[in-house]
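Duplicate of #3305? Posting structure anyway:
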């Protein structure tokens, strides 16, 4: 699965507006001085008013964001920037007004709501109207630059231009070393012009964070977890240490297979690092596209989901061509292909919806099917990065994807619908509580469903044939899951490790790229095969950096989803190994799940977690329980091999030697 999603429309609550976030009134309309709370207004009345104002403003802001992502041009970026300006101006007003209630009596709900108000944007804006307007412009420009990113080479008639999807196809399918390197380096070249904008962006959001009382924007992000920011950072270190041995075994196995495929010299970089362009994914965060290389037992328990979806597309194409009569011309064939692509994408989405409905959740509203973007339009640039949107806090939910008939996109749909069902479950709450218990919860909902997409489930929906229960089939199934879930974990940690350093100044602008690759080496054990000096800005080639979406949420989500999954399996009465459980169609599991979703951000996440799992602590134990057969198998395969890697003289990360935080 390709993570991943952005809660693109403003994620209101303790976590964040993603993308360009929300922004303020045009500068001319910004208040010259902080607006005072209304005379005689109590804290509870203030919170009620803010909730009403958010609900009223939200549809306009989210519509502007939707347009800027689905119709990328100068006009839509301007509209989005101005809508965000208005939002940030109002947010700054509310935060200033909230100071009047410090130390005054108020309900516990109001106290929590005011705390969440300060943390509502991942892009804290300076109070200075000119700087706020500048921040809004930069954020929209960064977002647009990523969405329109195109790699071109050649001259004249030989000139070839490709966007991210086509370049990803090369990494997914080609095993030509040079073609993969060209596609990888080509996409990373699109981020070079972002560097100066990003440096200024950091200065502006840090100023906004300091005005809110935080040391920097990173400290503000870490404050959104109902615990001390430093304690939260230490908690992520603890969780990484739980799963690091499993990742190192997977890394060791993958490296040996790459060396067998490409040769010893090309299959690794330096002291045991994996070549960045050979991992089947632009950012090495998901290794599932290397199945042809990493499959433990050829064909055992074969789950050719991509093949099944491609056959479904071909059937739809055949029907569309048949409707156009014998010998359709090029235009008719093209129209038939588009029709088949859209139909297949909708069928894949309907299949994902069916899982949630089987748990007792409602069908998605008809407006979802009318307004979502399912495939890439032909007439304009769009952000294809999969995302889920709550447009109005009242049922207008959408996904934005460029769906292709493959396993990666199929599971991504299940993930994105998890966001929408969370949105719909907590929509009755006041807007300040309309978010995940923490941002990791939001990302874990759909992935909990993905874990329940067992071979038995896929067989029950007719997507794959009856599966054998052999040991070989089990190891294959576990490997497929690990290539998505385990391979992702260090990546989920390192992006914000980089940004926290950028925000606090320990990573200055003249070390942006160097520090990025040092962290990727330390945590992921990957490296580029070519020099990547400071003339590059490789962090900008990952959507969540120019899109300013905090990323630790995804690391947490990859652990939480296994905790959720284990608890729902217990609720469903599952006995036997955890990895065999699917709770598809189980009403009790659905009831427990929905009860958690309905709580939103109305209470500390620890309480919400305890209600579902019995524990207030995020824990990787369920991950290790799930992958126990694979970890044992990997240790056998790696016996006698030199596992671990040397990330460089300043940052060793060898087997048995904890990476530095």
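Output from current build:
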């Amino acid at each position: 699965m390709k993570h991943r999603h952005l809660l693109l429309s403003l994620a209101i609550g303790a976590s964040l507006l993603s993308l360009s976030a929300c922004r303020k009134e045009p500068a001319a309309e910004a208040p010259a001085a902080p607006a005072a709370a209304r005379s005689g207004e109590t804290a509870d009345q203030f919170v009620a008013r803010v909730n009403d104002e958010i609900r009223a403003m939200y549809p306009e802001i989210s519509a502007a964001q939707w347009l800027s992502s689905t119709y990328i041009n100068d006009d839509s970026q301007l509209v989005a920037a101005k809508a965000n300006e208005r939002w940030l101006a109002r947010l700054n007003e509310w935060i200033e007004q909230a100071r009047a209630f410090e130390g005054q009596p108020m309900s516990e709900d109001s106290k929590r709501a005011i705390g969440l108000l300060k943390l509502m944007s991942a892009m804290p804006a300076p109070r200075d109207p000119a700087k706020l307007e500048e921040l809004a412009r930069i954020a929209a420009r960064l977002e647009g630059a990523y969405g329109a990113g195109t790699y071109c080479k050649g001259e004249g008639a030989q000139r070839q231009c490709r966007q991210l999807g086509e370049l990803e196809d090369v990494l997914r399918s080609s095993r030509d070393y040079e073609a993969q390197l060209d596609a990888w380096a080509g996409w990373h070249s699109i981020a070079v012009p972002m560097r100066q904008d990003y440096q200024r962006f950091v200065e502006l959001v840090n100023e906004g964070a300091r005005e809110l009382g935080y040391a920097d924007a990173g400290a503000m992000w870490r404050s959104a977890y109902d615990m001390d920011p430093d304690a939260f950072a230490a908690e992520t270190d603890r969780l990484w240490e739980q799963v690091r041995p499993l990742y190192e075994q997977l890394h060791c196995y993958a490296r040996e297979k790459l060396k067998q495929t490409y040769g010893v010299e090309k299959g690794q970089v330096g002291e045991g690092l994996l070549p960045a362009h050979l991992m089947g994914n632009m950012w090495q965060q998901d290794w599932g596209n290397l199945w042809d290389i990493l499959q433990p037992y050829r064909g055992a328990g074969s789950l050719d989901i991509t093949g099944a979806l491609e056959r479904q597309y071909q059937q739809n194409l055949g029907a569309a061509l048949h409707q156009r009569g014998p010998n359709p011309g090029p235009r008719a064939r093209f129209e038939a292909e588009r029709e088949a692509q859209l139909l297949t994408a909708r069928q894949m989405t309907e299949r994902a919806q069916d899982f949630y409905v089987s748990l007792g959740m409602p069908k998605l509203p008809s407006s979802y099917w009318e307004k979502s973007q399912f495939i890439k339009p032909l007439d304009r640039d769009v952000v294809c990065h999969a995302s889920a949107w709550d447009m109005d806090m009242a049922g207008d939910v959408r996904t934005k994807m460029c769906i292709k008939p493959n396993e990666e996109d199929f599971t991504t749909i299940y993930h994105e619908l998890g966001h929408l069902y969370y949105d719909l479950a907590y929509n009755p709450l006041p807007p300040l509580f309309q978010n995940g218990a923490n941002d990791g919860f939001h990302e874990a909902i759909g992935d909990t469903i993905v874990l329940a997409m067992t071979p038995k489930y896929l067989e029950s929906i007719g997507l794959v044939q009856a599966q054998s229960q052999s040991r070989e089939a089990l190891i294959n199934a576990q490997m497929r899951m690990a290539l998505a879930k385990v391979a992702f974990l260090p990546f989920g940690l390192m992006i914000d490790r980089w940004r926290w350093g950028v925000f606090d100044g320990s990573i200055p602008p003249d070390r942006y790229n160097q520090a990025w690759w040092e962290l990727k080496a330390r945590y992921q054990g990957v490296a580029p095969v070519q020099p990547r000096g400071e003339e590059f800005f490789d962090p900008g080639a990952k959507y969540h950096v120019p899109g300013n979406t905090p990323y630790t949420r995804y690391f947490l989500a990859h652990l939480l989803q296994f905790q959720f999954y284990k608890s729902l399996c217990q609720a469903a009465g599952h006995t036997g190994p955890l990895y065999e459980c699917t709770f598809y169609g189980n009403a009790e599991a659905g009831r427990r799940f929905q009860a958690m979703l309905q709580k939103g951000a109305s209470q500390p996440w620890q309480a919400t977690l305890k209600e579902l799992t019995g524990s207030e602590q995020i824990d990787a134990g369920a991950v290790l329980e799930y992958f126990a057969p694979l970890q044992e198998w990997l240790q056998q395969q790696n016996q006698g091999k030199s596992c671990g890697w040397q990330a460089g003289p300043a940052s060793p990360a060898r087997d048995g030697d904890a990476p530095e935080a």
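Confirmed duplicate; merging threads. DSSP finds 24 helices and seven strands in the chain. Residues 16 and 121 are 5 Å apart (CA to CA).
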